[in-house]
Specification:
- It is a single chain.
- The chain has 378 residues and is an alpha/beta fold.
- The protein has 2 domains: 183 residues, Glycogen Phosphorylase B (Rossmann fold, 3-Layer(aba) Sandwich); 186 residues, Rossmann fold.
- The chain is built from 16 helices and 13 strands.
- Helix 5 links the parallel strand 5 and strand 6.
- Helix 9 packs across helix 14 and helix 12 crosses helix 15.
- The protein is globular.
């Protein structure tokens, strides 16, 4: 497995998939960045990410990665940077001379794309060129959403498939009964003091957003939407990220009088979902956001932007809105807060969708089948 810097869904997925594959007898080694290794339990891993230990060591790390690739059957890369590094590391690998273990001229290369390259992210031309080259070199490209699969085919991938990315927290959330209003208020009474929300009215409904503090998440639009709500509420944003952007967001919330509180990353996100009347995600783009799957499993109605893989995930089980439109987000959130019947209906539908999502065992089985098929390809 090859995965770069990650503090969110990609790291969570690689950690779960690697563990489930090992449980099924597969020898998995993860090559990653030290930041990712600190955040996730990845099992057997190598901190050979070029540049992470200084550029003097970059070539040495790359050489170590190539040696590991030479002894592998499959190199499975995640994300754009991981895909590019894996494609470079498997170039022109000669067959091994070990007659006891005949090898192909190079390991099979699989690249899983989890994010789109968004307009305005910089170096668009270079990134597109790299995507095209990686798509041509990969034996299989998978996308976490159907638009990523279509993009890979347009870039020239010979084989591209949709690969669902499940949240490992969904089964545990499904085991718990959805909380009623009294239980939500009781949970808030426990959670609020832990983030110094000591003067907040516990009787007010809670809106929760769980998100990295990053431009892709479109959080300034969320702050504007919160300032335009008619119903009083408490809106809590869980997540860390860009400190400069966080400072700007807090200043924006203060200036607009928006009831938004940024409380940082939390390990008890499931409890916050169970304490909330509605979960809102205003992202500019998402694949199949793990946190949306978790919100539905918790029985928390979802309001999300109609982008990427969220359409297929949330349609018929939540409210989808136009991205970048604070009035649309405010209106949809207001509908859920003011209509108990709608809230109960969305909660039930979300739980039904979450019940039918694949779990880690299902995903490992799917990948073992793809690995076997890929190894048989000539």
């Amino acid at each position: 497995m090859v995965v770069g810097r990650s503090t969110g869904g990609i790291g969570t997925h690689v950690a779960q998939l690697s563990a489930d594959l090992r449980d099924r007898g597969t020898d998995v080694i993860v090559v990653t960045h030290p930041l990712t290794a600190q955040r996730f339990d990845l099992g057997a891993m190598r901190l050979w990410w070029p540049g992470s230990a200084g550029w003097i060591r970059a070539l040495h790390d790359f050489w170590l990665l190539r040696r590991l690739a030479l002894d592998s059957d499959i190199v499975h890369a995640h994300g754009h940077q991981g895909g590019l590094l894996a494609a470079l590391s498997t170039m022109s690998i000669a067959p091994t001379r070990d007659r006891n273990r005949p090898k192909l001229s190079r390991p099979k290369l699989i690249v899983s794309q989890h994010n789109a390259v968004l307009e305005g992210s910089g170096r668009q031309g270079l990134k597109r060129l790299a995507q095209r080259w990686v798509a041509h070199r990969a034996d299989l490209v998978t996308g976490a959403s159907s638009d990523l699969v279509k993009e890979a085919l347009l870039f020239g991938a010979g084989r591209a498939e949709l690969a669902q990315v499940p949240s490992p927290r969904v089964p545990e959330l499904l085991e718990q009964r959805p909380p009623d209003a009294q239980m939500r208020a009781k949970t808030r009474a426990t959670l609020f003091p832990s983030v110094n929300l000591l003067e907040v009215d516990l009787a007010l409904p809670l809106v929760v957003t769980i998100s990295r503090i990053a431009p892709q998440k479109n959080l300034p639009v969320l702050v504007v939407a919160a300032s335009r709500l008619l119903s009083p509420c408490t809106w809590v944003v869980l997540g860390d990220g860009d400190p400069d952007l966080l400072t700007t967001l807090r200043a924006q919330a203060h200036a607009l009088g928006a009831p938004v509180h940024f409380v940082g990353a939390r390990s008890d996100a499931g409890q916050w979902l169970r304490a909330a009347e509605v979960f809102v995600l205003p992202s500019e783009w998402e694949a199949r956001a793990l946190v949306v799957q978790e919100a539905m499993a918790a029985g928390t109605p979802v309001v999300a932007t109609d982008v990427g893989g969220l359409h297929d995930l949330v349609a018929r089980a939540g409210l989808l809105v136009i991205p970048g439109d604070p009035d649309a987000i405010a209106e949809a959130t207001e509908r859920v807060l003011s209509d108990p019947g709608l809230r109960a209906d969305l909660a039930q539908r979300g739980r039904e969708v979450a019940t039918n999502l694949p779990d880690g065992h299902d995903t490992a089985t799917w990948w073992l089948e793809r690995y076997a098929e890929t190894l048989l390809m000539t």
